[in-house]
Amino acid sequence: MTAWIDLIPAALALPATFCCAYLALLTCLSWQLPSQGRSSRTLCFDIIVPAHNEEAGITRTISSLQAIDWPADRLRIVVVADNCSDTTAAVARKAGAHVLERQDAKLRGKGYALAHAFACSLQDGFASAVVVVDADAEVSSNLLEAFASRIEHGAKAIQAHYGILNPWSSWRTQLITIAKGAFHVVRSRARERLGLSCGIRGNGWCVTHALLREAPYRYYSLTEDVEYGIALGLAGHRVVFAGEANANADMASNETTARSQRERWEKGRFQLVRASTSRLLIAAWQHRSLICLDLAFDLLVPPLSYLASNIVLLGMAALLLKLFIPSATFWLFWSAGCAVALLIHVLRGWYLSGIGIRGLAALVHVPGFILWRIWLLLGLKAKTVEWVRTDREKH
Fold it and tell me: Does residue 333 lie within any of the structural domains?
């Protein structure tokens, strides 16, 4: 009977142990990457900005892109005004961008906007690579230098650090800043060191025209960026991490906006896990591909809030069982070990996020944030792929 009861904490410990061991490995490998050499500054880029009703903030983004340290005759800023009902196109033209206007009542979404822009870029032949920057983002001046230097060393797909513009808007954005430090910096540094793919994260990424021809962009789901990164991995290509450059965007600071945004992300994530995990694992086995294996692990490791919930449930189960079975003390220590591994990962993310000591205060909101995330998970609705514009922060 005791053996059967022990299966309860064992079942809870299995996912927690796998995830925490994986994150502990990545954390240990997250020290500073070596600097990249300078480029010849001869490559031409099309910077694609997909925009849906972004008249209020598109000028700020274009101004940031115009400040990039790169020869002006070797870059174009291309705004895709996609199914807009406002003056996004006119405002973008006035700000100095090339504008592609697209209207399609059925094929709606960021993926369709990007596919249209990529096709136009390939057709006119000005650029040798495309860069994707969100319409609410600001970029570092070294963005194209970071991409070009890696392309000249053989890279075909690159992801810059995707950070937060408004970390101090609320405790919520402070937590997201710390989480992105773990998700985008800690893990990406480790993957770069191991020669794996850091994946595509939606904002601040670059692919060469040669790769677009080899692996066309045909992804239109709620997580079209991650899906394309997986497709590249299945095709044998890794996404290189350029951590010295960044593309920072606004994050929702109020509960209403955050709930809508998070619901879309969660739906997209679960759809992608179901659709892609088995394909990646099969490809990893058939082709002995560590890139595909790690991309599968990336999908299998849940958001930190869910992982923390798993560890708490393990600890609670062990505590209850200890009242009847003394041997359950083992599982209490096991859950504590998982908790320590997760905490170290989070603290490493906090340190690399640059938010400082003041940002640690946001961690007191973690229990409430976890409960909020679980509540959203239980209430997810039917999927949608329509481009729903997130309300922007006021600056």
Answer: yes
Residues 159/187, Cβ–Cβ less than 8 Å:
no
Read out DSSP for 147-210? HHHHHTTT-SEEEEEEEES-TTS-HHHHHHHHHHIIIIIIHHHHHHHHT------SSSEEEEHH
Whole-prediction pTM value? Answer: 0.89
Phi and psi at 97, nearest 5°, equal: -95, 155
pLDDT < 70 regions, the chain: 1-6, 255-263, 377, 379-395
DSSP state of 273: H
Question: How many angstroms separate the CA atoms of 100 and 119, rounded?
Answer: 12
| Helix axes of 224-234 and 255-287: crossing angle, nearest 10 degrees | 10
Interatomic CA distance for residues 240 and 151, integer angstroms: 10
354: left (phi over 0), alpha (psi -120 to 50) or beta: left
pLDDT of residue 163: 93
Residue 167 lies in a domain: yes
The DSSP output letter for 376 is H
What is the domain range of residue 223? 7-32+41-388
Tokens found for residue 150? 């890696």
Look up the CATH number of the domain holding residue 89: 3.90.550.10
- Our count of domains for the chain comes to 1
Triad 278, 161, 215: Cα angle to 5°: 45
Q: What percentage of the chain exceeds 90 in pLDDT?
A: 72
